[in-house]
Design goal:
Number of domains: 1
CATH topology: Rossmann fold
CATH architecture: 3-Layer(aba) Sandwich
CATH superfamily: Response regulator
Radius of gyration: 22 Å
Oligomer: single chain
Order of helices and strands: EHEHEHEHEH
Shape: globular
Structural class: alpha/beta
Distance between the termini: 35 Å
């Protein structure tokens, strides 16, 4: 089971339920935020490995922010050292959105009208890309055993 943590910032309850259910079933730890304030609190509590971000958010958010790009800007400003991948999942993919998103370091922009499969593919790719390169290195090997023909005096006794 994966221990990768995904934060979904989505104000449409049905979409949130669908995504949370699917991602949890796929083994991810999922936190949901329906408002900007909830998303910021979730990031302060535990920085996610990946954020799925809607661009158009709930109007009465206590922060006054209703734009996913504002959330992204706050994430990058408050946590510049965070290695958090961001995927925009929105029906608002007008011309210029992808260019703006890429300039802000977004991994992918997925149109909600294309369904959930492209989102799931992008999530896996983003998480695979951010895995530390050291994980691919072989584990250090144990010291070589002394040759069988070595005299007993060459063996060291290890006590704990």
């Amino acid at each position: 089971m994966s221990n990768e943590h995904i934060l979904i910032v989505e104000d449409t309850a049905l979409v949130m339920i669908l995504l949370r259910s699917r991602l949890t079933a796929d083994g991810y730890e999922v936190t949901g935020a329906g408002k900007v304030a909830e998303a910021l609190h979730a990031m302060r509590t535990r920085m996610p490995d990946l954020v799925v971000l809607d661009l158009t958010l709930f109007d009465d958010d206590p922060t006054g922010l209703t734009d996913g790009f504002a959330v992204l800007s706050l994430l990058r400003l408050r946590y510049p050292e965070a290695d958090t991948a961001v995927i925009i999942y929105s029906a608002n993919t007008k011309p210029g959105v992808e260019m703006r998103a890429k300039a802000m370091g977004v991994f992918a922009v997925i149109d909600k009208n294309d369904g959930v499969v492209p989102l799931l593919t992008a999530i896996r790719a983003a998480l695979d890309e951010r895995k530390p390169r050291q994980a691919a290195l072989p584990a250090p090997s144990a010291p070589p055993a002394p040759p069988v023909s070595a005299p007993l005096s060459s063996l060291k006794l290890v006590t704990s």
